[in-house]
Amino acid sequence: MNTNGNYIQYELNDPLTGSYFYFTNDLTRDLSKALANPTANRIIWNQGKGQFKFSCDEKTVTLRENTFCTLTALNYIKFPDNEQKVTAIAFNREFYCIRDHDHEVSCNGILFYGAQNFSVLKIPSVEVVPFEKLVDLFLKEFEENDSLHGEMLVSLLKILIIRLTRIGRNRIIGIQSDYQSIETIRKFNLLVEQNFRKYKQISEYAFMLNISSKKLSEIFRYAKLDPPLHTIHQRTILEAKRMLLFTLKSVNEISEELGFEDASHFSKLFKKLTGKSPSTFRIRKN
């Protein structure tokens, strides 16, 4: 652990297992290391009173006081110069796989790998102190170096993710107490993340969830969320934007990779949701 006054940095990097965990309480001071592992998921917490702004998938994200953001290895992140101190945690699948352990934390589809692909959560005022105490437990554990050290860090990370997942669930207005419907939304988001290249119809996802298309649409309407079909389309176009911006693949290649039988259908959907053709979007952004 590296400490210097109020600045703290910790890194666990096991070359034998590939396990990676990183913590910093001053992200902008550690950008090169905090973003060094391309396979890591990240949790960012603005504990200060000022705003922290950065770019994620070409969208501007604003973290206000006591706001968290959860990001996956799939996100394209740019952090501009910013004097605001924020806390950040990075971890890869080898350290703790949120997909393999979904039954433990149930965060996929709410915090990670949802259709919008990143979440911004405001901590309720009554939860601020418990989160601060949890960070203190992380800091204390960084001073240990026994055989239980790694397991303890995983346990603390799980507690953090579970607490954030509860906040994320409560953010789904209209059905806060309907845990079955919340679970359906969560599973739908995860299924879209896993299958958007192959499946484009609500009925295909409703079948996997063992409910009717009508019921699935009703759940989203009661939760005051975008319709399921819109969610599928948005996830598809988000991936298209990434490929247009960060690869040299042609529009036809992207269309085929995203599961469209005809490139014109892809271009039509892209323009409907963005107002630009794929080619125009690539030129203007670059």
UniProtKB/TrEMBL annotation:
Highest taxon in the source lineage: Bacteria
Location of the HTH araC/xylS-type domain: 186-284
InterPro entries cross-referenced by the UniProt entry: Homeodomain-like_sf, HTH_AraC, Tscrpt_reg_AraC-type_HTH
SMART domains: HTH_ARAC
Signal peptide start-end: none
Keywords: DNA-binding, Transcription, Transcription regulation
Pfam families named in the record: HTH_18
SUPFAM superfamilies: Homeodomain-like
Protein name: AraC family transcriptional regulator
Organism phylogeny: Bacteria, Pseudomonadati, Spirochaetota, Spirochaetia, Leptospirales
